[in-house]
Write a structure and sequence with these properties.
By secondary structure, this protein is of the alpha/beta class. Helix content is 43%, strand content 13%. α12 crosses α17 and α13 crosses α14. It starts with a strand and ends with a helix.
């Protein structure tokens, strides 16, 4: 008997390597016992056999099997490792086995994969974060009880969706944490470790009740998509029973209410500027600032306090472009006056650049946020919002005619180059925009503020200053040439 102990419940690479070696040594499925290190041993298992040297050689299996096995191994069935090895063994003599949907082993593995995908979908839909602490040291924590071992595989979804906030998802199996830089996995915890509620939940319940549409209520469909076992993790769950009970009456009131006239769309005139016309019209910054104050090119103006236009000398040799104004900038009407601006001032000074000789602006001129009680949480601008605001950047640049434009972060780089531009591939090198202007890409100073590890923050700050020193060296060369 061959005893194989995998490193974890989701150790697909370990299973794959062990299965390959077993197959090359022609070890039959009945002669293999699979387990996970740290899990209770089988009743009649004594001790593991001494390690055997890895077999040499290789063989091919359908890509469909590998894809299916990678998902099915996340299932909680303790027999999944043995089942997958048995299916692999059979594939050697029946290469088309994966196409026989009625085969018992194939059907069982496919059912496992479907169950894993359903569980991942439920996790993505029903995780609710609760806030701990206050900005800038706040964190968002959620509790979830998965049916299968899906946490590590599903964590990247939350990384992409909530990239600008630090969060943790706690489960009985393992916990996933995002610090704005990388995902880490730690052992599972008890439910008592998770927060029970936060200060914003009453606001969320009010919002949920206001958007609940009784005319579209389908109770069976709702319970099918949102099983009651998930309700205890949802702040809005305690409202659901009452909302269902009141649905009939509210639907009747909606029907009885007279229809209103549809809102007529408003026509707006958007500025149309070409690079040639911007350079030849002789626009001044004061003219642009006054015109931008009434900008309606996208919807962000509706919630923002005001347009936050650029600021600096009329003929600044260096132009810094950030993402968008933050809370402090939105209230003050000036760019880079909040915590990120203070970090930028410090870095400019360390790089030998006089802030008073620099023109600072943002790719997007209105503050985009989501309200959380009295706090307004920053939200990343979309491509449509960046494109709507890009004419202002182009006209600012045409009016200033800087020798160097520094893009601070991905949003700024997208505005400067007119396309999505990866930071790591372009960072720290001069790129020609036209015969008169070069560009330099680096991170946004707010990225440094989000790093929780002091050592990592110090290293990244030094890299940021080094990028700005490239700008300082170019400005010195231009000054000597003049």
């Amino acid at each position: 008997m061959q005893y194989i102990a995998l490193a974890s419940e989701t150790d697909f690479n370990g299973w794959r390597q062990a299965a390959r070696d077993l197959m090359l040594r022609a070890v039959q499925p009945a002669d293999v016992a699979w387990s996970v290190r740290g899990r209770a041993p089988e009743l009649f298992e004594t001790s593991a056999a001494p390690p055997v040297a890895a077999a040499q050689g290789g063989f091919n299996v359908p890509a469909k099997f590998i894809e299916l096995a990678r998902t099915a191994i996340l299932h909680r069935d303790p027999q999944r490792f043995a089942l997958l090895y048995r299916l692999l063994w059979r594939l050697r003599s029946h290469p088309d086995l994966m196409h026989i949907a009625t085969d018992h082993d194939v059907a069982r593995v496919q059912a496992m994969a479907r169950a894993v995908h359903r569980d991942q979908h439920k996790m993505e839909a029903f995780v609710r974060f609760r806030e701990i602490g206050r900005e800038p040291h706040n964190r968002f924590v959620a509790w979830f009880e998965p049916e299968h071992h899906i946490v590590e595989a599903t964590a990247p979804f939350f990384m992409r969706r909530f990239a600008d906030m630090a969060w943790s998802i706690l489960t009985p199996d393992v916990c996933a944490h995002w610090d704005g830089h990388a995902i880490s996995i730690t052992p599972g915890v008890d439910r008592a470790t998770a927060p029970s509620q936060d200060r914003l939940e009453e606001t969320w319940r009010t919002y949920y009740a206001s958007i609940f549409n009784p005319a579209r209520l389908k109770v069976k469909a709702m319970q099918s998509e949102m099983p009651q076992k998930y309700w205890r993790n949802l702040p809005e769950a305690r409202l659901i029973k009452a909302l269902i009970t009141e649905a009939g009456r509210r639907s009747g009131e909606m029907i009885a209410t007279a229809a209103t006239e549809p809102r007529k769309p408003q026509r707006r005139e958007e500025p149309v500027m070409t690079e040639h016309s911007a350079k030849t019209t002789g626009e001044t910054l004061d003219t642009l600032r006054a015109e931008a104050a009434d900008c309606r090119a996208c919807h962000l103006w509706k919630d923002a306090t005001q347009t936050v236009f650029g600021e600096g000398p009329r003929r600044a040799p260096l132009m810094l472009v950030g993402e968008q104004p933050g809370d402090k900038e939105d209230l003050a009407g000036k760019p880079f006056v909040g915590p990120a601006g203070q970090m930028l001032d410090r870095a400019l000074q360390d790089a030998g650049i006089d802030r008073d000789k620099v023109y600072v602006t943002n790719a997007v001129k209105h503050f985009k946020f989501v309200p959380r009680g009295k706090i307004r949480l920053h939200q990343k601008p979309t491509t449509a919002e960046i494109n709507a605001c890009r004419p202002w950047y182009e006209r600012e640049r045409a009016a200033i005619q800087p020798a160097l434009v520094v893009a601070l972060g991905a949003t700024a780089a997208q505005s400067v180059f007119g396309r999505i531009t990866p930071i790591n591939k372009t960072r720290g090198r001069l790129i020609e925009l036209d015969q008169h202007t070069q560009a330099l890409v680096t991170v946004h100073p707010s990225y440094l503020l989000r790093l929780p590890d002091p050592d990592a923050k110090a290293r990244e700050y030094d890299r940021f200053v080094d990028d700005l020193k490239i700008a300082a060296a170019l400005l010195r060369r231009l000054a000597r040439a003049a």
